[in-house]
Write the structure tokens for this entry.
Amino acid sequence: MSLPSTSQELDQKRRITVVGAGYVGLSLAVLFARHHDVCVLEIDEKRVCDINRRVSPIADAQLEACLANSCLALKATSDARASLTYAEFIVVATPTDYDPETNQFDTSSVDEVVHQTLQLNKSALLVVKSTVPVGYTESLQRRYQTNRIIFSPEFLREGHALQDNLQPSRIIVGNEAPQSACFAELLLRGALSPEVETILMASTEAEAVKLFANTYLAMRVSFFNELDSYALARGLDTKNIIEGVCLDGRISDGYNNPSFGYGGYCLPKDTKQLLANYEQIPQTLIQAIVSSNATRKDFIAEEILKRRPRVVGFYRLTMKEGSDNFRSSAIQGVMKRIKARGIEVVVYEPSLKACAFFGSRVITDLAQFKRRADLIVTNRQSDELSDVLDKTFSRDIYREN
């Protein structure tokens, strides 16, 4: 769509504050800092120091290179008053973990930033980038009687956060505020792609887009995992079946590589939050997508136990190559099931500094790890395991994330 703005407005340097230096916040800050003055507000002093030294606190190859080599108008601070008071745009990218007790995202960090910002700044547009329940932004607008709060979803892959901001699949921005179109232009101008589909819609609709998009991806992961479970149980070739299915252009390739389940920071919590949003609305598919992930881990654990291992080695806890994040990784769910059956478990994870992980020994020497485990479990195959393929268990077919 065409966004109303003048060339003079586009050339004007904006003062932007990004709250939170995780995958979403830091990648957005770097994107904006190529053309505008950007401040990252972060409570973790080490991250503040790293960013000011142009060192990326998270694993993302392009983000690391851009921070180290680019001329960016970027600084980081833990001083809320200094960073919020004079900003024209304030982007909230703080974590919103799923709370199983309340069946909702914990939005307390966003609540705090919004409250503080509205007290300090009387004109800035406040853009929520944290993933939130459907209807959350509208509730903030009602509570504070303002249209200066909008929602804009992000669609980032782990380990490719900056790349996905530079070449976004789409740009979606809540349209309640006069500055909404200008913020969409900031995202669009920061992108390297010549044309990006850009949509202004109600913030509640934008929130729904985020949750439904991630739930669809989780559904696709679950579908091909259950296809693999069927093939494994029946002694069939999973790859042949997947390739035959995906030659249909309506299905196509992508998100079809079997794994131990969908995991990471977004898909598990987003699917559960969407399910919670369906209260009093008929559904069966969303519940099935949530339930299928546990079913897959149960199946994988049983397949491992059939091999009667004495010591099971878990190679890497991260979900994807090039990432240092193993929050809610599916392999951990498999590991817990194996340990519950009394099997000794050892872990090889270079990003872990501790000598134990949930009571299991962490072995930092790969050769020693290979000797100790009589079965090695890995969600994704690696060249490092090429010499022990005979005792490696994985459902990875295409060797891609």
About this structure: The CA atoms of residues 5 and 260 lie 47 Å apart. The chain has a mean pLDDT of 93. The two ends are 32 Å apart (CA to CA). The domain at 221-393 is CATH 3.40.50.720 (Rossmann fold).
